[in-house]
Write a structure and sequence with these properties.
Blueprint: H1 2-21, H2 25-60, H3 66-90, H4 94-127
Helix pairs in contact: 1-2, 2-3, 3-4
């Protein structure tokens, strides 16, 4: 049911922003940002449920949950960058949006580097 609500909020918000944009361009952007923030509030509700599930998974990992932390960081960074890039694109700044997306990709690569290094160490240990 929440997906239907979010869809309706998104569609109505976009239609309202487009109709207002003809009068004042900046108001359309403000409406789009407000709709994004409302949808973000719904997303945060689901994120709390995901965190509770991750806490259960952490209990199964026996003190070796550093990779779970990396996964959460990567997912959070991905969402934050997509959110910011979407707002930048809506405002007409696609160049800034591209840079935000590039930063997100590089951040995820840097966060995932310890996992890659651990994998390479395990492959080397097996090969010897």
């Amino acid at each position: 049911m929440d997906m239907i609500k979010i869809g309706i909020i998104g569609i109505v918000g976009v239609l309202f922003a487009v109709s207002i944009k003809s009068y004042k361009t900046e108001y359309g952007i403000y409406i789009a940002v407000a709709v994004c923030l409302i949808i973000l509030e719904y997303i945060m509700r689901y994120f709390v449920n995901i965190l509770m599930g991750m806490d259960q998974i952490r209990g199964y990992l026996n003190e070796n949950y550093q990779y779970l932390s990396l996964l959460l960081k990567a997912v959070g960074a991905t969402y934050a960058c997509e959110f910011c890039a979407g707002i930048c694109k809506d405002a007409g700044y696609s160049g800034v949006a591209g840079q935000v997306e590039m930063l997100g990709k590089l951040y995820i690569l840097s966060v995932g580097m310890p996992v890659l290094l651990a994998l390479m160490e395990n492959i080397q240990a097996i090969a010897k």
